[in-house]
Design brief:
single chain; Four Helix Bundle (Hemerythrin (Met), subunit A); four-stranded parallel beta sheet
């Protein structure tokens, strides 16, 4: 691929950074409403990605006035929003599942931006996961695999199941009614082919299988699941299901005999100190390093050990010359 234009390169970097931050925010255990911030950041990521594509194609993604001049806001060009980008990129392909996935999130973002609706997270997990996987595939398709962020993205978003369905959640949280109704209405408006596409909603399931017969796992495969993530189950069962199923089987604390392994980055690096699951191997203790660094910094500041002379910029070489310079202003 030829060298990217500066504007395209900057937009591409913004897109990748926003997507990685979206995943990090979603996977933080302390955050209750995960999809709220995730959707906002992923909309930014997708918009920047399309801008990068258009800049590379020498097409400026700027809004125009009726006289064809570009619109400026505070001196800067007003860039296309995501909806306009989709129209330009996909044209008449209105039923493209990737496009329909993104069109699902544009109005949903506005509905949840100033609301807290954590009950929505498990309901739209499939669409959120597809939004991320589609993003990485678009990076590969348009800019090459070296720009992908797929290293840890087989199941990048960690699923937090809930026994409460959306209807029950709305009865408990009336402020969420508008968003819930939109989700149901939008899903009813798209074709069955789009709805069943993994590009619209990635149909992976996290299930407890230790107390169930293997036919339950076979059932979700038959229902259209594209992959299975097993968490904290005996490796013997993982091995059995890996050979029994034709879809990929992934493990998070479920042993070695499967198609792939997953571990939370914060757990692996020792950032989360409240507890450590049995299946986590800490490859570093970054939290301790960070805490000790801050303690040392605070102590140095209090004892006036920092900054030292080597950490400051002197205007001139000698104190006498400095005093002479100041006399000129007296």
């Amino acid at each position: 691929m030829n060298r990217l234009p500066g504007a395209s390169k900057e937009a591409l970097q913004k897109a990748r950074d926003s997507a990685l931050l979206a995943v990090e925010v979603y996977n933080k255990p302390a955050i209750s409403f995960k999809s709220g911030a995730y959707i906002t950041l992923m909309v930014i990521a997708w918009t920047a990605l399309f801008h990068a594509i258009f800049f590379r194609r020498k097409k400026k993604p700027y809004n125009r006035k009726p006289n064809r001049r570009y619109v400026r806001v505070d001196g800067d060009y007003k860039h296309w929003e995501l909806n306009e980008c989709l129209k330009e990129y996909y044209g008449d392909d209105s039923m493209n599942p990737v496009r329909k996935n993104l069109e699902f999130f544009i109005p949903l973002r506005n509905k949840i931006e100033h609301r807290a609706f954590p009950e929505l997270d498990p309901c739209i997990f499939g669409e959120c996961q597809a939004m991320l996987l589609n993003f990485d595939e678009m990076l590969k398709q348009e800019f090459g695999s070296k720009h992908c962020i797929h290293q840890c993205l087989s199941f990048a978003l960690q699923f937090y199941p809930s026994s409460e369905n959306l209807a029950e959640a709305v009865r408990r949280n009336r402020d969420a009614k508008s968003a819930a109704e939109f989700v149901e209405r939008y899903r009813s408006s798209i074709t069955t082919e789009v709805f069943q596409s993994s590009q619209y909603s990635f149909k992976a399931f996290l299930i407890q299988v230790a107390n169930h017969q293997s036919k339950d796992a076979l059932a979700i495969q038959g229902a259209g699941a594209r992959a299975l993530l097993l968490e904290a189950v005996p490796p013997e069962l993982t091995d059995y299901l890996s050979h029994k199923l034709t879809i990929p089987v992934y493990s998070i604390g479920a042993g070695l005999p499967c198609d792939g392994q997953l571990i939370i980055c914060g757990d692996m690096l020792g950032l989360f100190q409240a507890f450590t699951p049995k299946f986590v191997k800490k490859y570093a203790n970054v939290a301790e390093v960070i805490i000790n660094a801050f303690k040392e910094y605070v102590a140095d500041v209090k004892e006036e050990k920092f900054p030292e002379d080597k950490h400051v910029y002197h205007a001139i070489d000698s104190k006498e010359a400095f005093e002479t310079l100041f006399k000129e202003f007296e």
